[in-house]
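the three lines:
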Amino acid sequence: MLGFGLFLRRLFRRRIVLIGALILLVLIVVALAAPWISPFDPNAVRVARRLRPPSAVNWFGTDEYGRDVLSRIIYGSRASLGIGASVVMMSVACGTLLGILAGYFRRLDGPIMRVIDAFMALPDILLAIFLVAVLGASATNVVLALAIVYTPRVARVVRASTLVVRELPFVEAARALGVSTWRIMSVHVLLNVTSPVLVQATFIFAYAVLAEAGLSFLGAGVPQEVPTWGTMIAASQSFSDQAIWLVVFPGLAIVLAALSLQLVGDGLRDMLDPKLRKSL
Amino acid sequence: MTDTSPLLDIADLKVAFDTETGTVTPILGVNLKVHAGETVALVGESGSGKSVTSLAVMGLLPRPAGRVAEGRILFRRRSGDSVDLATLPREAMQQLRGGEIAMIFQEPMTSLNPVLSVGEQIAEAVRQHMKLDRRAAQKRAIEMLELVEIPAAASRALEYPHEMSGGMRQRVMIALAMSCNPSLLIADEPTTALDVTVQAQILALIDRLRHDTGMGVLFITHNLGVVAEVADRVTVMYAGQVVEAGPVRALFRGARHPYTRGLMDCLPARAHRGADGRRVVKAIPGTVASALAIHDGCRFGPRCEHAADACRAAPPGLEFAEPEHLTRCIRWRSL
Amino acid sequence: MASRLAKRLGGLVIVMFIVAAIVFFLTRLAPGDPAALMLGDQATADDIARLRTTYGLDRPLFIQFGLWLAEVVKGNLGHSIFLQRPVTQALLERAEPTFFLALFALAFATLIGIPCGIASAVWRGRLVDQILSAIAMLSASIPSFWLGLLFIQFFAVRLGWLPVAGYGDPGAPLAERLAHLILPATVLGIVNSALIVRFTRASMLDVLGEDFIRTARAKGISERRVVLRHAFGNALVPIVTVVGLTGALLIGGAIVTETVFGLPGIGNLIVSSVLRRDYPVIQGALIVVAGIYVIINIAVDLIYALVDPRVRT
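prediction for all of em together
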């Protein structure tokens, strides 16, 4: 296991990865510290100040109810990133379990993989919108739906790594020594699938942020009363002719979040994938 | 041996690679001549710089990291002019490559393009250098396959590499290399990946083609047994330097460098009987020093059983032990 | 080749069966009685009971699934109460804009993505590569609906170059209808080009490191020919795969894009059907989309054989 300092130095060898990580860090800090850094109450309606363009007072302008857009974006990051993080945790947990089962037990491999193939035959957004339609539109159900959408990705990656790890000499040796199947899986296989899962998790985080925004925009996601970056755009798109800033700034927040996550994911992949590292 | 100027004349070659951790010089002092019609063997362990030397001659050093830092690589063109391959512009180098200088590689299994028929691959070089049209080039390709003794050449020309055996593919590689009548052929370990029986056939084929066409052959190998069979002269490399060079018989009779001696002692045929009567194959202790490790004195010093204080003091130069027999050892007289 | 294809087909039939099962049973998880939903608010309890019998909704779930599946296999995807017509008909009526949108977007993404990916690989690590890779990653981070809204504002509203939204009058000439697709196809193409760029770059890098590339260079042919004929020729199999995959993904992307641009396509129909809980349409659309995905997969397999002689034998 390499030390944390060396890990960071390798990860940030490309400056752009470092930039991505810093943006991500800022976004996370903003989400956590929202009540302290937000200039206004995000829900304070002031009709007298409605649809004001960006100014020294309201940096990102105000919306159709006179609410401060910057404050809403800051609070919106809690919901948007929170949903993304919950999706990642759920899909990583379920996907890892399914992937290890499929990769380690030959008899389960076929059935599990066929079901995963079936889920992957449906485009992300289509499957998500269908699931939300069935489950009902709420933040929890959006998380559930997106977790179902992204679980197959994790499962595939984990299965592939498990197949490789299962044949490695030390796992065979452990089996020959009579170490129990459960122990082999929980220790050896789990340790070895960590890297690819970490990379996948970062990308899924990015996709989940984008997908949540897309679902909310379509009206099949989080209800508009909850400010997420997606619902902010959805709610104000009819004002986009007169107040384009209502669309621009929440969208930029989505782009920044998705981009920084993908940059970090790319950096992790470069660092953790020995095949790629050789070619770089 | 001809008395004209050599076909290939490498002098004081130094090749540098720029890496993340700084510049390394895998080649530092290679001198080598190949005359028309002769086979020169370039011998050394893996990592000694044989292949890098050949890639430098071909102008195929990996770009942009690798470059010729010093020295010259003179090549006598068919027209009679001499050009320095180290400084030749890219387009001019491209014309020579595959035309007047051809190369065959170690791995016949992976050295041919899997999605093109072997005939197409040969015809491509022919069209490039001989300016033939598609049909004439295809005909030439079939002739070349016949030249390298591939039966039913016309139909095999339509086959893809995956339909052929390793020996057959190496014949295709040779046909490809010979297709534009090169005056210099560089063969980089052409038989290492092949079965022993096939090895002998391929060696005989290369030798016959050399004899028939009068081309010069630079034969790169780590196998001294092969050297004895094919070479007129031998150049031995160690850690990026030529350590000994001379006619093959002179070297096998009396090597003037401890490293060459060590290599010869590794030959099973030369194993001597130990005290208990069993045959003992000697090995050279240690491994090739990393090209990154810089130390004064003789590069082979750390592994040499004859090393003295003088060997560690300053890097030895190449000197003549006999006419045409060079060695990079200051103690050659006492060996 | 034939047996390989047969095996693939067998696998894909199983996948389709599972998709059908997922679609059917998940729909039944939805709150509300499907019969009540079909009849709307004014239905009496008697009406509902009669409909339940007619459609077999009172029978066990697995029997219902079997009956439904048998109809699906025959090409009958059910009936939309809201639209008052068969689902297949509703889908077909909306197919044209979606088809052209996906086609143009795929063409855009491929024509941009492959050259960028090749350039990135050839000049690996240089400035070109860094810029192209950064752009690719940025384009994959942009929500398509957001880009669509900005494009509408800029190119249609401010500059007035292109139609704002919709698909023209139903009777309008094809050229006019297609003009409505320029902006949406560009948006969808940009957002989906990143995958193609990344994949092309990676597979070109793999191939450029192969021994036969050195052989090709040793022949003295131009570097351009080495890259385009020898390297690209061998990178085609993964590239064809990713282009096919992108084609399938575009169907998902079209849902959002059609909504932004008000295109009367299948994506738009799906969104409206979700909002009005028109489950037969949603089910039908999911089956059709999965079917298209499967067909693209088979097509990609067939193209492999054209591209790679090792697959042919």
